[in-house]
Task: structure prediction
Amino acid sequence: MNILEKLTLLEKESDDFGFKWSHYDQIINQIKNECLEIQEVIEEPTMSHHLQEEIGDLIHATFSLCLFCKFPAEETLNISLKKFEKRLNEVKRITLEKGHENLQGQSFKELMAVWDQAKERVG
Result:
């Protein structure tokens, strides 16, 4: 059984037991809280295990939102992967058009400008 199947079963068990989300806003708030918890521990080099746990909690919360919306998790991840791959390929094309081999050494602002341009081109 893969991890997505395991999470799906655990979420179903939780729902069947009555421990479940009643509205998507609850999950979105949980996602926000997990992001805040990540921010709290990310700067602490001795907390790498705790940081990994918090990132896992964030992934789990977003997975919960996916299931709450009745989307198959694997399909949802595949959609995201295909979209990212398409955009990344466009980022590479834009970079080559600008005469660069890659984006190494570029500022974050420049990276986001290229990313936004790629999003405009391919969606």
